[in-house]
Every structure is written in C-alpha cells, then in structure tokens.
Design a protein that fits this description.
This protein is globular. The protein has 460 residues and is α+β, with helices and mostly antiparallel strands. The protein is built from 16 helices and 15 strands. The chain has two domains: 167 residues, Phosphorylase Kinase, domain 1 (2-Layer Sandwich); 281 residues, Transferase(Phosphotransferase) domain 1 (Transferase(Phosphotransferase), domain 1), CATH 1.10.510.10. Helix content is 38%, strand content 13%. The N terminus is likely disordered. Belongs to the protein kinase superfamily. Ser/Thr protein kinase family. Its EC number is 2.7.11.1. It is found in: Cell membrane.
Length: 460
C-alpha cells in the first residue's frame, strides 16, 4: 500500500473512470439528494448549500465526493504516469522549475500535442494530500478566468498524483520581488500595479462571480504566476474552500495557509470569509510596494513581520517614502504611492468588517494600473512626477499627459495620511473605500466619454 492510503478506491474511480464497471445503480443511489447545477457561463459549481457541503465532506467512504462528480464532469485530461515522465524527460534536474510545500514542479513537453506545460508532482510526504489534490482538480475544472491558471490535466496512476498546468514563462511573482540576482532587473512601478490589479481580478471572480463563492485561502506571492507581459494568474487551489451560502456569515475549518499571509481572525478562530482573502491580498500588495517579504527572519527585530513593521508608518505621511521598495530608486509617482498605500492599509485592517470587498479594490487598482508612470519627469516631486494614459508612446490611447497638480487630482482620494490619522477611523475607512470606488468609476466614465468623443469626431 502506498502513502496515499486515505485515497480510497471510490476516489480512484472518480479520477480514473472505467466505463466497463457495472455499478451504475450504486453510483446513482443518492442522485435524488442533488440539485441540478444552475447553468452559467462563468461557473458550473452547484449553487446549493448541500453541494458546498458535499465538496467539503471528508467521509471515509467517499460517497459524497462521488455525488459531486455526478453533478459536475471533470473536464481535465487524464494522463498516464508514463506520458508525464516522457514529457519531463523522466523528471530530470534540467526540467526542474521549483518546489513548494505540495511538491516539485517540472517543465514538460507533451509529445502528443507539442504543448509546453508545467507538471506538479505531489510530494507523498508533503502538505497536500489526496483531498487537496481532488479539490484542486475539481476547482480548476470548474472555474475559468483570464487571471486563473489553466489546468490541462492530471495523473492518478497508483500512488502517483500529478497536475498538469499551462506553462507560465515568467515564473512566480515571488521570483521577481525577492532575492534577485545582480543581473535581474527589479519590477518597475507600472508593472507592479498591473500585477496587483490582475491578481485582484482573479480574486474578484472567485468571490463575486463563482456560485457559490470560492475562498482561495492561500493567496501569496509564490502562488501568483506570470505569463508573457507579466500577466498574473492565481495557481494552487488545493486549499480553496466553498464560501458561506444562505444566511451563513462564514465557514469554519482547520487553519491552513502560510504564516504572514493569514488573516488574524482566521488564524485565531478558524472562521473563514472572503475578507480573509482580502487581508492576504493586502499583504501581497505591500510586498509589491515595499519589495519586502511577508516574513523575513534576516531583518532586525521589529521588521521581520511586514504588516507589523508597516502599520506604524501609515500614521505619518512623511514616512511614506520609507515604504517604497528601494530598488525602485525613487521612480514612482508620489501620489500614486499614497493611493496604493491607502488600498493596502484598508485591506490589512485587524477587523474583517473594516476591510473593503475585493470588487472595490479592483476598481481602485484598475485606476492605478491604467496610468503609466513616466520616471523621465523626475522622482520625488509631485510637480514633476507625470503619469501617462495607458498607450502613450505605444500606439494606443489618447497620448495626453495628466499632471498630478491638474485634472487627475480632482478624482484622487483625499490625502492618505488624513484618512489614516483621523480620530474617527471607522468612518474614515468607509469613506476611503467609497472614495476609491468613486475615484475608479469617475476614471472609467472619463475614458468612456473620451472614446465616444473620438468616435463622434471621426464620424463627423
């Protein structure tokens, strides 16, 4: 017997269907308990609470997992271990991409299609067991979005558990933020905001579009993979949970995730909500802004925990530049830094209720990501810091400049320091969220009107 003893024969049947087996009466004996999934172009997850319970269930006989399989079909391709061994050249060191708590990842080439893929071989003694493997296969088979990694297939031969993903050529966000070799260029401000906005959109899809909502539970920089053009995609869904449905405010579960990224209320009580993911997003956004790790034991005492170090600095506007990554060398818009810090500060609030919804975060970050900072105008002085509408110099957009002392200032949030230092912090946080949302919506409306004006002018 292999190390995957908890993965019983019925679970094996789900991942390795055999049409010759004559047990259809047994497979459907619980079908009357299932509600048919609501058709949706964004998700085929069954919306009922009972379906959520079925995915969360860990009954020893595996019946409920098989019921879920009856309701949704796994669309991922099934590979044999021999095929994946051939694709990765027998998992040779030259194919090795990286290693995490769940296993090693290799670059591979599928012989049948010629497609380049990433193959994750689960560590038999690692953190991800058969339950997490099954959850990841189900989740990524059902959820599809430009900011989620695409699952191509899986292998469940014997005691081998492997997942096959689309290959992300630029690696993980962590690779571009921390411990950079001397010859590697750090990410510029524009790219950091683009990555943050894209990752937030992936979370927004899970929280607001999937039915029932999905709580990612493991949002961290190493789980954000980068495609060409630094397009971010969330990966590793083994810890994902279906969120609360009906009148429930949270789901209770054992505490899992990565130290430094877990929301405090989840770490203390095991009560999980979508706001837990928002906290983790705030930590990653702080990593993007500061260049620091969430937890770094090599730093002096008091600076090892990123959130603990950053929070006091939010209270003094004069210290805001200390929060910017030194590798940026001052090449960032000062007002843009304030706005980014305002969003990060709201996301990492101690109280979950004080954090914004991810949809509001997306609105604010979309504004930041769609302004390209031009460091040629100088750094550290708002009167000289300039931002360009996306596309200037690249063949797209209107090509106009926005001075931060001009029209952009009218749509920006009020001074971040005032928001964070107010005596009535709860009220100010709510106002900050509302302003961030209005700020992004005003920007979208201006872009729409500008596009309409260009269209009318061209047809005059």
């Amino acid at each position: 017997m292999g190390c995957f003893s908890c993965f019983d024969s019925r679970e094996d049947e789900m991942l390795n269907p055999n049409p010759q087996q004559e047990n259809h009466h047994h497979e459907h004996e619980h079908d009357h308990d299932l509600k048919p999934p609501v058709p949706s172009r964004i998700s085929r997850l069954p919306p009922s609470a009972s379906a959520g319970d079925k995915l969360r269930s860990t009954t020893s006989n595996g019946e409920s997992k098989r019921e879920l399989a009856a309701a949704v079909q796994i669309a991922a391709q099934i590979f044999t271990f021999r095929e994946l061994a051939a694709a990765t050249k027998n998992f040779m060191p030259q194919s090795f991409l990286g290693e995490g708590g769940f296993g090693r990842v290799y670059k591979g080439l599928l012989e049948t299609t010629g497609q380049v893929v990433a193959v994750k071989q689960l560590d038999r003694d690692g953190l991800q067991g058969n339950r997490e493997f099954l959850v990841e296969v189900l989740m990524l088979s059902l959820l599809h979005h430009p900011n989620l990694v695409n699952l191509i297939g899986y292998c469940a031969d014997g005691d081998q558990r492997l997942l096959v993903y689309e290959f992300m050529p630029l690696g993980s966000l962590e690779d571009h933020l921390h411990d950079l070799p001397p010859d590697k260029e750090p990410l510029d401000w524009n790219t950091r905001m683009k990555i943050a906005a894209g990752a937030a959109k992936g979370l927004e899809y899970l929280h607001d579009k999937a039915n029932p909502p999905v709580i990612y539970r493991d949002f961290k920089s190493s789980n954000i993979l980068l495609d060409e053009g630094y397009h971010p995609k969330l990966s590793d869904f083994g810890l994902a949970k279906l969120g609360p449905v009906g009148d429930k405010s949270h789901v209770s579960t054992r505490v899992m995730g990565t130290y430094g990224y877990c929301a405090p209320e989840y770490a203390m009580t095991g009560q999980l909500t979508v706001k837990s993911d928002v906290y983790s997003f705030g930590v990653v956004f702080l990593e993007l802004i500061t260049g620091r790790k969430a937890i770094d034991s090599t730093r002096p005492h008091g600076e090892q925990n990123l959130v603990t170090w950053a929070r006091p600095l939010f209270n003094d506007r004069r210290k805001f530049p200390k929060l910017a990554d030194p590798q940026l060398q001052g090449r960032y818009p000062m007002r843009g830094l304030y706005q980014a810090l305002a969003v990060a500060s709201m996301c990492i609030q101690e109280q979950a209720a004080a954090r914004p919804l991810i949809g509001d975060v997306v609105t604010a970050l979309s504004f930041l990501a769609n302004q390209a900072y031009d460091h040629r105008g100088g750094a550290g002085d708002d009167k000289r810091n300039r931002v360009l509408k996306n596309g200037e110099g690249g063949g797209g957009g209107s090509g106009g400049r926005w001075d931060l002392e001009g029209s952009e200032k009218d749509d920006s949030p009020r001074e971040t320091a005032r928001m964070l230092n107010s005596n009535n912090r709860d009220l100010d946080r709510e106002r900050a969220v509302a302003e961030a949302k209005m700020w992004g919506e005003n920007w979208r409306e201006k872009r729409r009107q500008s596009a309409q004006g260009s269209f009318d002018g061209s047809n005059a």
